[in-house]
Design goal:
This protein is of the alpha/beta class. It folds into 2 domains: about 90 residues, no CATH class; about 110 residues, Nucleotidyltransferase, domain 5 (2-Layer Sandwich). Helices cover about 35% and strands about 15% of the residues. A 5-stranded mixed beta sheet has the order 3-2-1-4-5, sandwiched between helices.
């Protein structure tokens, strides 16, 4: 907010609108609601607020039962005009992969990754999850062996066999997070570029982490996170 030409009351209202919108709010809607002079101003304001939501953990923060899953974010694949084959879905598409690590009844860390490989998936788990935890994944082969590195081991559900829970082991919470993220992108933003996807992940993760408090309290928590963070207009990424 430093050196901003936008009045402080509009900044606070923008924080409240973003924090209280379960599926997010578009820059165009922010422009209308706040009476801003241009779409560009609203767009950059929204990105500055998303930048405030960014987490900067210096050590693993997730513990207990941690669900890990990945999804692909992007538009609906189109059927090629030169072939009758359906466009691929999931792995094999040109969409951007996103990994989510969700602490059962706790917080989430979600971010885009370059490729869905064992190195990237296991690296994210090692970076974010404490050693005494239990890791729960689906049967994707890139997760094989990660349980040996954690005291709680690894639980696996076999979606290919139509198994969605095995006792306390499931990734339904992670899939719930992905459902919110995708509904927000489709319904409010319509399209999110690969360059800025990480900011939308930060936004939805912040609301997820603070889902048990009311909109006013969530807005206060968001404003507190501004300290020490600055996003320049020439560096929106």
């Amino acid at each position: 907010m430093e050196d901003s030409h936008i009045p402080l009351n509009k900044w606070v209202l923008a924080f409240h609108l973003i924090c209280s919108s379960k599926k997010g709010i578009s820059a165009l809607q922010l422009q209308r609601n706040l009476g801003l002079g241009s779409y560009r101003t609203a767009w950059f304001l929204a990105h500055r607020i998303r930048h405030a939501f960014k987490k900067n953990p210096t050590q693993p923060t997730l513990f207990g039962i941690v669900e890990v899953d990945e999804t692909y974010v992007g538009g609906k694949p189109r059927r090629s005009m030169s072939t009758s084959k359906k466009a691929p879905i999931g792995r094999g598409t040109k969409k951007v992969p996103v990994i989510a690590l969700v602490q059962r009844n706790g917080n989430v860390i979600a971010k885009p990754i370059a490729r869905v490989t064992g190195k990237n998936l296991k690296g994210a788990i090692r970076e974010q999850v404490q050693k005494e935890s239990r890791i729960v994944t689906d049967e994707f082969k890139s997760y094989i062996g990660i349980g040996k590195e954690f005291d709680g081991g690894q639980g696996t559900v076999r979606h290919g066999m139509l198994e969605y829970a095995r006792g306390a082991d499931h990734v339904n919470t992670a899939e719930s997070y992905f459902a919110l993220l995708k509904r927000g992108i489709i319904g409010a933003f319509h399209h999110v570029s690969k360059r800025h996807l990480h900011r939308y992940c930060d936004e939805f993760s912040f609301r997820w982490d603070n889902r048990r408090i009311d909109d006013g309290e969530r807005t206060i928590e968001a404003i507190k996170k501004v300290e020490g963070k600055r996003l320049m207009c020439k560096e929106p990424a």
